[in-house]
Structure formats: structure tokens, C-alpha cells
Specification:
By secondary structure, the protein is an all-alpha fold. The chain is built from 18 helices and two strands. The longest helix is centred in the C-terminal third of the chain and has 42 residues. The termini are far apart. InterPro entries: Na/Ala_symport.
């Protein structure tokens, strides 16, 4: 009875009746208010990716983008598509695309807020929901509660999932009888990565994430080109199933929609605020530039990676023939095209993405740890806890753990969506500031004084040298000619 009630809570009450309507209404509103930012500024977005930093504070936009993608493209991302299709049918993929399109506007706004309200500690920037809740809403207690949940879910629970996936994958692919050796290696390389802080984590993700994407891109393009004639039929299957198939059953539509929203938000990091933790670390001239980049990240993750994985599964014909969900279904689908080499190819991709997800999730937790306390002992304790969670991954039931993760993620996303709505006025003003500068041909720069009454944007104060120049310009303009 308790178990059934819990499943209703996470499957229907939170995700179907509260979160899904809230998400569609808010993201639709943000899409309209930003002038469909998802469809514009593609050239500007790509140029922002390689923007040169004006000093050594923070990390580069490219590193911040790679860090955010590390958190998005974990093994759970690729494997999660199989569960979405299993529980919601092929139509769940359509709703994942809808979620991705709308999430791009949501990611744009929440990352503007994360940049505006970020803080500087040493030579690094930190930000995210806890920070813009505390500074934008002036509610540090709610920010602290959000930070605690973030540490628990991302720093700890999500890394149990990644560890378990790595161990299962190595065991199945290479027929390893004991995972203790694999676990030891994972602990060592993770410890080396996380003890170097943000700079080491960002350097690792900057190298591994593009490599993993390239390997996966080659696979997807190769299979798609060789079987391009099957794509129209797969698209028709996805779209027809998204609306309940021939029967147009309300329950089928709801199931596909819930799974699409759930998997879309769980794995692209939008709405819950996880990607803003990476976006806020970037050294950029204007908050809107990082908003554009993180919006692109949603497209790459959900439309390209998840969509491509779904195509491979549905085109292969192995779906629905008794093969278990997860790694085995992905491997079986790719084996259909590549033969016996497929398991090794898939395992390489998933090992790379799982490891970057671990270090990315670790940093998400670290950012919120520093919000709660700057004591070195607290951070060291957290690092040991993360390593302990990797060990736990060898023993826990992942299915039940996912239910717990889904509950917390759904709950925190609801709170964050409300916060984004309350602070969206500030984000719109920042976006208008960016557009006005672009309109007159200026390179956009942002300073807190550009928006009258803006408080808490401590990292955007105009330098004294520029303030002096502004005073001089005002003086000379006032002089008679």
C-alpha cells in the first residue's frame, strides 16, 4: 500500500498534475516573452562558445558549457531513453522534443539569473538556484534548503546511479567476475579529479565531453546514412504514438507525455537548476551570452543525443522483443548494425559519459556546499561522502533509488519554476539590455547599474576606471561648444 502510494505521488501527483502543467505554462510564457529565443541568435550562440575571457577569474564559456554537458550526458541520459520508450511508448520521444524546445527558453532565463546573482570566491565564480533565491528573492533560508537537497540528490544519489551503471556495464561487456578492481580504479581516478576543484574538473570535462560526443556522432551518422530509408517510418511511429495511436486513448497520451516531461527534465537539467551551477562559473561579458549557450546545451542533449538513441532503438527492430531496458537494449540495438563490436563501442561511450557525469555532479554538490559553509573540513567530508556513494553503487537496487531521485527532482523543480517566474522580470530586463546594445552595433557588456534598482548583482559592478570615464564623458558633453 505504501509503495503504491509513493508511486502515485511521483508518477501522477507531482509530475502529471503539478509539474507538467506548470512547466508547459511557464516555458510557453518565457518562449513568448523572449521572442522565441530558441529559433534566433544561432550565430551569436556559437560565437559565444569561444568567447575570450577578459581576465583569469572564473573559467571560459567553453569550459562552463562542457561542464554543464558533463552533468547532462551521463549514462542515465542514454539509457533513460529506453525506459521512456518502455513506459510511455515511442510517443514519449515526441514529448521529450517538445520539452526540449520549451526548455531552451527556460534554460535561457534561469542561466541569466544564475549569472546575474553569482558570487566571486577567490578567483572563481559560484552560482545557481540557492544563490539567486537568496539574493534575488532575499530568502537565504529557502536557498539553504535548496542547497541541501542539491547536495543530497546530485552530489550523492546521482553518483550512486552512475557508479552502478559503470560497474554493471563493465561486468556485462567484459565478463568481469568481480567488480572490486573496477571500483578501486573508479575511486582513485574520481578522487584525483575532485580534489583539484573546479579548475581540474572543468579541464577534464573540456577534453572528455567533446571526445564522447564525437564518438557518438560518428556512430549515429554512420547508422543513419546507411538506413536513411527507415527514418520516415520511425518518425511516423513516434508522432502517431505521441497522441495515443489509432485509439487516441487519453491514458496513452498522458503516459507518453509524463514520460517525455520526466525524462526530458531529468536528463537535460533544465527547470531543476542543475545546469545553472555550471553556467554561473563562466567569465562572460553579458549574462545573456551564457543563457544562449545553455539553451544550446538543451538542444544538443535532448534533441540530438536522446533523439538519435531513440532512432537507433526503434529502427533496429529489437524493441519490444523481450530484451530488458537499459544497457542491454542499447547494446542489442547497436549490435543489430555493428555486430559483435557494438558492446565495446557502447561501453566506451558510456564509460566516458558516466565518469564526466560523476565529476560534474560532484561539482554541483560542491557549489552548494560552499553556499552552506566555507569551512575546509565540510568540503573534505563531502568529498569522502561522494567516494562512499560510488562504493554504494555496487550494492543498491537502482530501480528503487530512481524512484527516490525522481521524487526529489520533481519537488525541487516545482519550487525552482516558481522562483524563475518570480524573478523573470529581472531576466527580461537583462535580455532587453543585450538586444539594445546589439541593435546599435555595440559589443554587449553588462553592468548592474544598467538596470535601475537591481540589487545583489555584486559581480557586475562597473570598474572604477569605467566609472571615471563615464563621469568625464558626462562633463565634456555638458560643456558649451
Amino acid at each position: 500500500m505504501v509503495k503504491e502510494l509513493f508511486h502515485f505521488l511521483i508518477g501522477d501527483l507531482i509530475w502529471l498534475y503539478i509539474l507538467a502543467p506548470l512547466f508547459f505554462i511557464l516555458s510557453g510564457y518565457l518562449t513568448y516573452k523572449t521572442g522565441f529565443v530558441q529559433l534566433r541568435f544561432l550565430k551569436e550562440t556559437w560565437s559565444s562558445l569561444f568567447e575570450k575571457t577578459k581576465n583569469s577569474v572564473g573559467i571560459t564559456p567553453l569550459q562552463a558549457f562542457s561542464l554543464s554537458m558533463a552533468g547532462r550526458i551521463g549514462a542515465g541520459n542514454i539509457i533513460g531513453v529506453t525506459f521512456a520508450i518502455s513506459l510511455g511508448g515511442p510517443g514519449a520521444i515526441f514529448w521529450m522534443w517538445v520539452v526540449a524546445f520549451l526548455s531552451m527558453a527556460l534554460a535561457f532565463i534561469e542561466n541569466i539569473l544564475a549569472q546575474v546573482y553569482k558570487v566571486k570566491r577567490g578567483d572563481l565564480y559560484h552560482g545557481g538556484p540557492a544563490y539567486y533565491i537568496a539574493k534575488g528573492l532575499k530568502s537565504p533560508k529557502l536557498g539553504a534548503l535548496f542547497a541541501i537537497v542539491f547536495v543530497f540528490v546530485f552530489g550523492l544519489l546521482f553518483n550512486v546511479v552512475q557508479s552502478s551503471t559503470i560497474l554493471d556495464m563493465v561486468s556485462m561487456t567484459y565478463s568481469v567476475e568481480s567488480n572490486y578492481g573496477v571500483l578501486f580504479v573508479l575511486l582513485v581516478i574520481t578522487a584525483v579529479a575532485i580534489t583539484g576543484g573546479l579548475r581540474r574538473v572543468s579541464h577534464i570535462t573540456e577534453i572528455i565531453v567533446p571526445l564522447a560526443l564525437l564518438i557518438y556522432l560518428l556512430l549515429i551518422l554512420g547508422i543513419s546514412i546507411m538506413h536513411i530509408s527507415a527514418l520516415p517510418a520511425v518518425l511516423k511511429l513516434i508522432i502517431s504514438n505521441a497522441f495515443g495511436g489509432k485509439e487516441m486513448m487519453v491514458g496513452a497520451i498522458a503516459s507518453a507525455m509524463v514520460q517525455g516531461v520526466k525524462r526530458g527534465l531529468l536528463f537535460n537539467g533544465t527547470g531543476m537548476g542543475s545546469a545553472t551551477l555550471a553556467g554561473s562559473t563562466a567569465n562572460t561579458r553579458h549574462p545573456a551570452k551564457q543563457g544562449l549557450l545553455q539553451s544550446l546545451g538543451v538542444f544538443v542533449d535532448t534533441v540530438f543525443i536522446n533523439g538519435s538513441t531513440a532512432f537507433i532503438i526503434l529502427m533496429s527492430g529489437v524493441y519490444g522483443h523481450g530484451i530488458p531496458n537499459g544497457i542491454l537494449l542499447v547494446q542489442a540495438s547497436i549490435t543489430h548494425y555493428l555486430g559483435g563490436f557494438a558492446p565495446y563501442y557502447v561501453s566506451t561511450i558510456l564509460l566516458l559519459t558516466s565518469f564526466t557525469a560523476i565529476v560534474g555532479n560532484y561539482y554541483y554538490g560542491e557549489t552548494n556546499i560552499t553556499y552552506l559553509s566555507e569551512r575546509k573540513g565540510v568540503l573534505i567530508t563531502y568529498r569522502f561522502a561522494v567516494l562512499g556513494m560510488l562504493i554504494l553503487g555496487a550494492f543498491v537496487n537502482i530501480d528503487e533509488l530512481w524512484n527516490i531521485v525522481t521524487f526529489f527532482v520533481g519537488s525541487m523543480t516545482i519550487i525552482n519554476l516558481v522562483v524563475i517566474f518570480l524573478l523573470s522580470g529581472t531576466a527580461f530586463k537583462v535580455w532587453d539590455n543585450y538586444l539594445q546594445q546589439k541593435k546599435i552595433g555595440k559589443v554587449p557588456y553588462f553592468y548592474a547599474e544598467d538596470i535601475p534598482g537591481l540589487e545583489g548583482a555584486d559581480c557586475w559592478e562597473k570598474p572604477d576606471s569605467l566609472k571615471e570615464k563615464t563621469r568625464e564623458d558626462a562633463y565634456f558633453k555638458a560643456m558649451p561648444r
